[in-house]
Amino acid sequence: MATPEKMRWEKDSLGSLEVPTTAYYGINVMRARANFPISRRTLHPRLVEAYCRIKKAAATVNLEAGRLAPEKAAAITGAADEVLAGKLRDQFVVDIFQAGAGTSTNMNVNEVLCNRALELLGFAKGDYHELHPNDHLNMSQSTNDTFPTAMHLAVVDALADFYPAVDQLAGEFKRLGQRFAKQIKSGRTHLQDAVPVTLGGEFRAYADSLKASMRHIRRTAEDLLTLAIGGSATGTGMNTHPDYAAKMAIELSKATGKPFLKAQNLMQAMQSQAPVGRTSGALRDFAGELGRIANDLRLLSSGPTTGLSEIILPPVQAGSSIMPGKVNPSIAEMVNMVCFHVIGNDTCISRAVGAGQLELNVMMPIMAENMLESIEILTSACTQFCKLCVAGIEVNRDRCLEYAEGSLGLVTALAPVIGYVRAAEMAKQALKEGRTIIEVIRSADLLDEEQLKKILDLKKLTGPDPNLPG
């Protein structure tokens, strides 16, 4: 028979509750756990870290203002440093679906840091007469200004890992663009034959699309460097020192190496979560581009005998439990699913951003979770896509050339010579008779071999015509 867990009593404005003596969280978290057993998901590690940086910075600023005793500030800072180093992570247990605005999150951090700081001061957990989660850990703060600040810090931190992953993926596509710069293949529009292109040109276009989308994310994320910290409950700065907000931005900049700034209008910064919405929208657009590219690779590698099969993706696992030898574009499929999920996350975020009311948006917890999840899975997807798929792409040169020479799109080059209508007739005849455009033109005796060779030079058809008048 298991030994009953030892408990301690804690009290709040609603009454008293027992808390396990081993727990660093307290009564507020106990109530949150009882109220919100909604999902299997607890606070994102980056959000916890961002909150610890805020508590550490607040202890420093309040110490300098003469509001917090040196030994208490040192204990709070020490506790925060321990969590930032990876300790006590199992104590952040509130569900991501919780009370509006993130009060449960803020109090989870307040209680864990407070109880660890109490131990550092030589007191027992729960001895709040010496150090209190609200009076000391939350000094000069409110959930209403700390949560949007923590959200901004966490997202900016996550993006710092995302950008290199995208750079690497774009760089790999650029490398393929150079490697296959002379590989001619059929272009396709509307999934129908079109004029020739090069495989290298397609890959370079993918690289540039990713870079353009990333530049858009960087531009929107600039707004996240403006912080609501110091706004207190409603953006007025009540219960804070006049210099508190500006000094907090300075401390957080020092801690993170990022140029964070105090919002010019703290009330606006707490009312509106548009910066998060804009950045989420940019991530959604990136997901649209990334998913489109993954789809193209799946299509170009389709087959190997009944599809396009112009490129060969590296095999990473068996593709079927029933069909021996089948290999699927598994990594590209994973990328598509990630992109769909990110687009769904953005839909939730955009609705949440628009749900702000008067001086506060209470939907911030789901914004933070979805934003951090989107960045995290996009980062991982880009890394795996680059390493296990894109870097190993090979070309089926014979198939590419076969499609390019047989494409009905070649008649486009003949239109300026024989006219659009006659060229269209040649295309219909080629399709009906199962012959190539070149064969039909030869049989019609419209052009001699020299003219035909010059006009239908596939290499020249992949770029502008220097012989046309300007």
Question: Explain this structure to me?
Answer:
The structure is a single chain. The protein is mainly α. The chain has three domains: 12-139, Fumarase/aspartase (N-terminal domain) (Fumarase C, Chain B, domain 1, Orthogonal Bundle); 145-231 and 264-398, Fumarase C, Chain A, domain 2 (Up-down Bundle); 407-461, Orthogonal Bundle (Ribonucleotide Reductase Protein R1, domain 1). The protein contains 18 helices and eight strands. It has helices spanning 27-35, 45-64, 70-84, 103-121, 133-137, 143-179, 199-221, 244-256, 266-271, 274-300, 330-353, 364-388, 397-406, 411-418, 420-433, 437-444, 449-455, 458-461; strands at residues 7-12, 15-20, 184-189, 192-198, 226-227, 261-262, 311-312, 394-395. Strands 1-2 form a two-stranded antiparallel ribbon. Strands 3-4 form a two-stranded antiparallel ribbon. A two-stranded parallel ribbon has the order 5-6. β1 and β2 (15-20) form a beta hairpin. α7 runs antiparallel to α10 (274-300) and α10 (274-300) runs parallel beside α12 (364-388). The longest helix is centred in the middle third of the chain and has 37 residues, at 143-179. The protein is elongated.
